[in-house]
Amino acid sequence: NDKTFLVWINEEDHMRCISMQNGGNVKEVFQRWATAINEVEKSLNAAGYTYSYNEHLGYITTCPSNVGTGLRASVMLKLPKLYKKLGVHKLEELADSMGLQARGGRGEHSP
Question: pTM for the complete prediction?
Fold first, then answer.
């Protein structure tokens, strides 16, 4: 009931596993995610299925940018003071300089 772990099927990806919670305990969020995806894989294997894999490309996904590991990880942080100090364009430039993507408060493609 606390909705800290969700699985979306056939939305944008074949399967998207989401582990989340308020606060800053990234280790706990990751442990919950890792445990859950390992259980999903065990269940698939027990039913005679495996993830699609190619020796050259790695894991096959519906999103070409995720081919290889099949993994994309993200962390959502609220940075109101930094946003107020820098403004949206400077904050995006700062994130870009560190190899990160700044996204809106409601995720990808939001303001």
Answer: 0.67
